[in-house]
Amino acid sequence: MDKIIIEGGNRLVGEVEISGAKNSALALLSAGLLTDDWNTFHNIPKLKDIDTIKTLLLHIGAEIEEDGNTLKIRTRNPENLEAPYEMVKTMRASALVLGPLLARFKMARVSLPGGCAIGARPINLHLMALEKMGADIKIEKGYVITKAERLKGARIYFDISTVTGTENIMMAAALADGVTVLENAACEPEVSELANVLNKMGACIKGSGTDCITIEGVERLKPVIHTVMPDRIEAGTFMVASGMTKGDILIENCPIQHLEALATKLRETGMEIEIENNGVRATGHSLIKSVDVKTLPYPGFPTDMQAQMMAMMCIANGLSVMTETVFENRFMHVSELRRMGANIRIEGRNAIIEGRPFISGAPVMATDLRASASLVLAGLAAEGITEVSRVYHLDRGYERIEEKLAKLGANIKRVKE
Ligand code: EPU
Questions:
Q1: DSSP code for 275
Q2: What CATH number is given to the structural domain containing 303?
Q3: Which atom of ligand 1 is nearest to the CA of 302?
């Protein structure tokens, strides 16, 4: 297992290029199951989670060709209409194959995900929606087995806004008979990108980016060529890295239009976030003002940036309150940040952080992707050496993060444990 070792204190300066969006790519590759000829996706990031979805798609029987960051996928004669436990437990987004398999091949067997480091994260809303669309659903031996000759359009209300739930049902509804209306649908940019790609494939989807999406089913979809948008969470993580190191980073191909909530908060801390010709410049200063943050579904402050923002508040001037409303257990980084000298108290869904002039390096480990990112950020700003173990979490969602940070001047290296 690899470890990342950081000697903190360096100011990060320079340019960084953002990779393709992980959560978009996962949904788009799953949508590749919906057509019978080659779909081409450019700008697919090189990540562990992408390897996992590739393994799953190959298991199903898709053909995959890869050239650099371009991935082609074609599904003609699937062998296994299923997502096995080994893959779903590695990555919950594996459940994204449920909608496409059921809609195109009339059946899907998908392992139910168990609990997860950040919350219970069930898929009951995905199943409720498919049942409303006429699917027959059984749970057997830890698997959900769904069957439908042809799904039927339905009016569906999600009582919690769910990103992969909205994506799954949008893909299923694209090939259903009749009109499906999704109310309280997720508005995340990844959902909109999937809707746009499905429309390029010949689907008829309106309203993506709002909380009411209408999908008129079609008989079949055609293959697509598409370039995945840049990853807003990776871009946001580099913005915070700049803020925490008094840095000056030009973030190339930064999807700033999807980062309004974060940029607003970072400006309140005293950072400058300016749009330039080649990207977005994020500049930090010695004084970091404390801010309160509440995570919400898009366009609210993203839960996927909560841990990183908390790392920043650990060295801010004053008290800040971070409220996590999306996941019930997403404060696992707190005890590790405390080991670095941070002063954080948890009260229910609130973390109260009393900023300190400095934190100090320590051996730490994380339990999920964004928590790992927050520890790397803390390490960049800390006095002394930080060793982050369980780097495989980081590799799930950040492409070559240590290389990108080193290029900006960080003293960071990856070593075998
Ligand atoms: N929920 C239910 N029932 C469901 C579905 C969701 O109760 O059937 C609950 C969840 O437990 C959670 C809330 O609804 O409390 C929102 O969960 P959502 O379904 O939106 O999350 P997700 O689709 O599983 C995606 C991203 C996550 C990101 C969340 C929220 C992908 C592959 N994953 O997860 O990304 O945090 O949306 O924005 O798109 C990450 O990249 O680090 C990551 C965790």
A1: E
A2: 3.65.10.10
A3: 38
